[in-house]
Design goal:
152 residues, Methane Monooxygenase Hydroxylase, Chain G, domain 1, 89% helix, SNARE, Vesicle_trsprt_v-SNARE_N
Length: 152
Amino acid sequence: MSSDFETYEQDFGTLTAEITSRIGKIPKLGGDEKKNMVVNVEKQLEEARELLEQMDLEVREIPVQSRGMHSTRLKSYKQELEKLEKDFKRSRIAYSDEVRDELLGDDGNSSASQLIKLRDERAHLLDNAEKLERSSRRLEAGYQIAVETVYM
């Protein structure tokens, strides 16, 4: 059972890395390419949700002694998926802002667009801080697993 969970974890890690890469590309694309990328990311997010459901089912079947460790990891994966969904929304909003600016003929020099750029930069900094925090938690969880393994 635990090996199934680990397989799902690997699949989830690969999938989230691909989603993250595609989300980063969305604001840089245009037209149909962007629409196709958005559709692909939506499909991948759904696939990630399904993987989490499978992991949840596996955790329920794991013996009680090791269930806590797997539950904690599952919870962090759910948080990671929520973060990806928020990033995806932001990238789609950035797309909407670009289209609106194109239609209205915004040349990028207005104070409103400067404020938007500053807000985006601040959001990017906050995102990076969150990524750093998540990575720190993962390292701590990995260390905890190593310690538990040594003492068992």
